[in-house]
Amino acid sequence: MAARELSDTPAYNRWAAGTLAGNGLGGFETTQARPAVWPFVVVAFILILALFAQLLYHFRTEVVQHLPAAESIYGALGVAVPLPRNADFVVIEASDLQADKTRGLFVLQATLHNRASYPQDWPALELTLTDTSDTVVSRRVMQASEYLPPNISPESFPANGEVAVRLWVEARDIGAAGYRLYIFYP
Known about the structure:
By secondary structure, this protein is of the alpha+beta class. The protein has five helices and six strands, in the order H-H-H-H-E-E-E-E-H-E-E. The longest helix is centred in the first third of the chain and has 21 residues, at 38-58.
């Protein structure tokens, strides 16, 4: 048998004739509609602005600490800027709890010190009375209005300020032998 030469011959199909001719749409001329992108861009921009505004509101104390001029902007918008509350910079320098047996009271004396270079909000004090086995007998949380002396301003704890606290605690017949004093911001 002799090898026959195979060659590609163009085939004709009357059904594909219209499709192969021209742009491949088979005689149907349509323009491709592009989806509108600008509404998504506008919505994304609005969402980014809303996120930025929420961040400026949530971290307003820190923003005012780093940019003091921002306080006037917050004031013009009617947004109150609270004082910083950094418990790491507020320490108890000294504390002592003495029993006054005649009146049935305990006298707590403590010295609080703000080591920050900026004024802060007054912290809360937690006094925990314990027995001889260090079991909690009583616990009390005191806000600044309860422990501040009358001559100290309740507005803010001054930068590098120190305040002496003296409290009388009524604790009759509870068997308290020790105490713990803790500073925190609620």
